[in-house]
């Protein structure tokens, strides 16, 4: 028994930690599973509770109670605001919500630091609980035991409400069929608000009570959110028992795991998550049907419905009548419209060295490197239907490969790019099988695990990668064999721009080719593609490996630009930014994505230079504005005269034709490119699948 | 009393329903028959508020409800039994009843309100299935449950969208009887169905819906005496005129 004995304390800690996470994750699961809101600001709600609790509880019972009431009420109110903020996004899909709530989380995080300071607040618990008690011969903090009791009480109360009351029945009915709930006389909007308020209250209460465990500091929102997401993915939606089990499991991994296997500790959480997700075919979220696949491409079919609403049948009919005479002129207009944004972008980028100072030039170069990662995310998310948070992993592989090559004296740029792409492709080939089997939200989480594990490995393998210090001091890249090294920012920029332009052009051509269409077809109607004899898994693998190579090239360029690389260049934040750039850009638009990255880099690094220390706040505001002002992403701005025409009107208009050949009005406002055409069709397919 | 006047509705800018006029007095059954795509469900949805009509009016005992949110229309006294039944898969029969039941908000008037007990008396099969989840019920039981759900708000108007779809003949007969009994209770019933026989067997008035317009109106009694005109009107509508 000595082994057991030695690990008793961490095991109990794990239970306390797990129950804390359970209370938080239950709220997240409730919001996602029944109100359909993927709330990335859930961690911020916890932090609101934690900060207020720490501020108000002064070591007396009254203080703790006051903190509990105020903290819970504040987070509950924030949940109500969140319900109001997400209501206009109904039907826009989960990625739009992710963009909004991620933005709100950044804003709230910044405000909390502004109000309470950047240091973790000290937490005072009532004197009676600030002692230790004896548990099987070990001293153990009384507060934690009390916390276990309170968390169990909260969990039981929540379960009772959900399963035994009329309100709980309404919540479950609303998850199932909100329309019928309305037809029964219950306002679904009220249920939506109620669910988010309850989720907020749970997070707030957890924040107040859990402050001694996960303290009120700048990192708290991210830690809590990340762990809760992991738990929800493992435990599933709507199944509180699943969430409980997963929460206790994660709690144990984080405490008992660290004490039993300290060397493996950094990998344990994400490795075990990846293992569970990969081993359990059709994980919890996938089993929930709709919730999963929607994330991938469902966005588009939903937003298409909005587009349909806006475009009258008259336009569709006029188009059908006019189609035969559209002819060549339409094709030319279409080509120009398709190329124009690229021409503008290339023009802007080409002008950069002569217009901006050296720092800004290298910032734009960094943006290009990140842009390639984001474009690789577009390929996976928008075309292959694999929403990813893991493209920073091949990005890092490419970057470190390049840095190590340079260190060995291999400084020829094209060779670096080629080898970086190759290394990243091999990396993708190895991790691909785990990723491409999953769909929807599960992909997000598996790729998140891949990304986190990769950056952990990089951080741990100090001898090769320099650990968290990163690699630096290697020779500069040479653009050609035998040429001079790229000594200054401007020449490096020109090289980076050239390589990035070639890579983007190659990607663009691929996506416009029939291969790209097969990919889109796979995303939209996978079963149908399978039934038609298409090797879907092979297509996805090709896309994943190609996207990996593209991200690897981005990594090579990153190293050329900043002549330094560290694990922070490939962290979760970068992965999230890449995904959000894609959402801002319009999900299937390569050029929109590049502009999205530009907006993000300008906001975070350039504007923040004017108002130091508030990069996150500005970024948050950018995301929030983008969600409301650019419902179709930047790509939707292309055709101001035909609202939402980037995707064209729907395929199931009375004439049921793909819109690519359709002209509206006098044949001048040609709609869209080939990819969007595919979207029409698969949106239609999805509708058919949904109704059958 | 339900009165529709010039009711026009559609999806995505396309109009499906073109100016439908209908009146369903209390205690009567009005059947709307039509083929697939004629606009039957669109009619029901736009009355129930699941679809916002683009023009026209929906009056409930003289009060305009067109354009209101679905839950407000439901509370104003419109019960819906939707096509495909759409019971809540994860809720038990008991929970359905509890969720749908609204105690009368005073001044309910002459109509005795529907309580879970009264509904279970009418639909005894549900009483035996109290603890079963919606997803675990048979088609007939789900239909009963959908009806119970609609009745528990003590509606003045009941909308039935293809209530006998996919049911065995013995259950179809049972549904006929129920519809008659409910109308006898003073409820105005609007029934839509592709089946002329269902319409003829229980309706007081029959309208034939063709491409979103009412093309023929018949009385139920005349259709029972001689079904030929009704069948003829329907077959004309099938040829797409």
UniProtKB/TrEMBL annotation, chain A:
GO terms for molecular function: branched-chain amino acid transmembrane transporter activity. Its main location: membrane. It is a multi-pass membrane protein. InterPro entries: ABC_transp_permease (IPR001851), LivM-like (IPR043428). This is Branched-chain amino acid ABC transporter permease. It comes from Streptomyces triticagri. PANTHER family: ABC TRANSPORTER ATP-BINDING PROTEIN, HIGH-AFFINITY BRANCHED-CHAIN AMINO ACID TRANSPORT SYSTEM PERMEASE. The keyword Calcium does not apply. One of its GO terms (cellular component) is plasma membrane. It is found in: Cell membrane.
UniProtKB/TrEMBL annotation, chain B:
PROSITE patterns: ABC_TRANSPORTER_1, ABC_TRANSPORTER_2. It comes from Streptomyces triticagri. One of its GO terms (molecular function) is ATP binding. Residues 2-236 form the ABC transporter domain. Keywords: Amino-acid transport, ATP-binding, Nucleotide-binding, Transport. It comes from the Bacteria. Belongs to the ABC transporter superfamily. SMART domains: AAA. Residues 218-241 are annotated as: Disordered. The lineage of its organism: Bacteria, Bacillati, Actinomycetota, Actinomycetes, Kitasatosporales. GO terms for biological process: L-amino acid transport. This is ABC transporter ATP-binding protein.
């Amino acid at each position: 028994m000595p082994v057991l004995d030695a690990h008793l304390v961490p095991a109990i800690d794990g239970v306390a930690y797990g129950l804390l996470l359970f209370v938080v994750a239950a709220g997240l699961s409730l919001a996602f599973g029944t109100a359909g809101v993927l709330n990335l600001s859930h961690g911020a709600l916890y932090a609101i509770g934690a900060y207020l609790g720490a501020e108000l509880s002064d070591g007396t019972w009254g203080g703790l109670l006051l903190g509990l009431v105020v903290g819970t009420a504040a987070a509950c109110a924030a949940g109500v605001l969140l319900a109001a903020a997400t209501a206009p996004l109904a039907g826009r899909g989960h990625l739009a919500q992710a963009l909004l709530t991620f933005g709100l989380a950044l804003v709230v995080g910044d405000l909390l630091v502004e109000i309470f300071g950047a240091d973790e607040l000290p937490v005072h618990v009532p004197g009676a609980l600030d002692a230790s008690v004896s548990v099987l011969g070990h001293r153990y903090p009384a507060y934690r035991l009390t916390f276990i009791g309170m968390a169990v009480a909260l969990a039981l109360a929540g379960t009772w409400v959900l399963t035994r009351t009329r309100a709980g029945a309404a919540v479950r009915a609303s998850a199932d069929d909100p329309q019928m709930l309305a037809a029964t006389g219950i306002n679904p909007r009220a249920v939506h608000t109620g669910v988010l308020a309850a989720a907020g209250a749970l997070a707030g209460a957890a924040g107040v009570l859990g402050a001694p465990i996960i303290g009120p500091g700048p990192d708290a929102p991210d830690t809590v959110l990340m762990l809760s997401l992991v738990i929800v993915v493992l435990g599933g939606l709507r199944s509180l028992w699943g969430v409980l089990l997963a929460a206790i499991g994660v709690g144990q991994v984080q405490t008992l795991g660290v004490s039993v296997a300290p060397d493996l500790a950094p990998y344990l959480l994400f490795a075990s998550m990846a293992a569970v997700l990969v081993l359990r075919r059709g994980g919890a979220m996938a089993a929930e049907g709709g919730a999963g696949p929607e994330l991938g491409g469902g966005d588009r079919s939903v937003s298409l419905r909005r587009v349909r609403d806006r475009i009258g049948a008259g336009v569709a009919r006029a188009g059908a009548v006019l189609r035969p005479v559209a002819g060549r002129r339409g094709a030319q207009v279409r080509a120009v419209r398709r190329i124009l944004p690229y021409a503008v972008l290339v023009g802007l980028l080409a002008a950069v060295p002569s217009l901006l100072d050296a720092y800004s030039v290298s910032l734009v170069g960094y943006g290009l490197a990140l842009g390639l990662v984001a474009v690789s995310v577009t390929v996976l998310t928008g075309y292959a239907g694999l929403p990813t948070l893991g493209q920073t992993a091949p990005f890092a592989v490419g970057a470190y490969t390049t840095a190590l090559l340079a260190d060995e004296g291999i400084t020829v740029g094209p060779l670096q790019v080629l080898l970086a792409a190759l290394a990243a492709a091999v990396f993708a080939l190895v991790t691909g099988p785990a990723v491409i089997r999953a769909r929807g939200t599960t992909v997000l989480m598996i790729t998140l695990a891949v990304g986190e594990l990769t950056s952990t490995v990089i951080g741990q393998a100090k001898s090769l990668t320099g650990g968290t210090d990163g690699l630096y001091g290697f020779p500069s890249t040479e653009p050609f064999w035998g040429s001079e090294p790229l000594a200054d920012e401007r020449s490096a920029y020109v090289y980076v721009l050239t390589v990035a332009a070639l890579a983007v052009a190659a990607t663009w051509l691929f996506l416009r080719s029939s291969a790209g269409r097969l990919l889109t077809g796979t995303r939209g109607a996978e079963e149908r593609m399978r039934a038609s004899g298409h090797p879907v898994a092979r297509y996805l693998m090709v896309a994943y490996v190609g996207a990996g190579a593209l991200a690897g090239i981005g990594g090579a360029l990153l190293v050329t630009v900043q002549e330094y690389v560290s694990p922070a260049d490939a962290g979760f934040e970068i992965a999230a930014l890449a995904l959000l750039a894609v959402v801002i850009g319009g999900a299937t638009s390569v050029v929109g994505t590049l502009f999205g990255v530009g907006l993000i880099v300008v906001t975070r690094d350039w504007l923040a230079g004017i108002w130091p220390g508030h990069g996150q706040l500005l970024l948050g505001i950018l995301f929030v504005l983008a969600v409301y002002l650019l419902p179709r992403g930047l790509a939707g701005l292309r055709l101001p005269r035909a609202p939402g025409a980037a995707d064209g009107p729907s395929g199931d208009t009375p004439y049921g034709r793909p819109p690519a050949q359709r002209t509206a009005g006098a044949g001048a406002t040609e709609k869209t490119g080939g990819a969007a055409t595919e979207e029409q069709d698969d949106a239609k397919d999805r509708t058919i699948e949904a109704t059958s | 009393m339900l009165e529709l006047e010039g009711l026009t509705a559609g999806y995505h800018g396309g109009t499906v329903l073109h100016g439908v006029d209908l009146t369903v007095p209390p205690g009567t059954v009005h059947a709307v028959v039509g083929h697939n795509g004629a606009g039957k469900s669109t009619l029901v949805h736009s009355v129930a508020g699941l679809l916002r009509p683009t023009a026209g009016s929906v009056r409930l005992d003289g009060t305009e409800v067109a354009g209101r949110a679905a839950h407000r229309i439901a509370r104003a006294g419109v019960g819906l039994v939707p096509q495909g039944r759409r019971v809540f898969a994860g809720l038990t029969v008991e929970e359905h009843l509890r969720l749908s039941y609204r105690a009368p908000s005073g001044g309910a008037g002459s109509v005795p309100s529907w309580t879970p007990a009264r509904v279970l008396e009418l639909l005894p099969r549900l009483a035996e299935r109290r603890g079963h989840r919606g997803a675990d019920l048979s088609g007939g039981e789900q239909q009963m449950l959908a009806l119970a759900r609609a009745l528990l708000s003590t509606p003045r108007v009941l909308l039935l969208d293809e209530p006998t779809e996919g049911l065995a003949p013995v259950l179809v007969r049972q549904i006929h009887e129920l519809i008659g009994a409910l109308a006898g209770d003073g409820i105005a019933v609007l029934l839509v169905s592709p089946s002329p026989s269902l319409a003829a067997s229980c309706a007081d008035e029959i309208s034939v819906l063709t491409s979103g317009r009412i093309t023929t109106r018949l009385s139920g009694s005349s259709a029972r005496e001689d079904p030929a005109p009704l069948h003829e009107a329907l077959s004309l509508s099938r040829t797409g005129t």
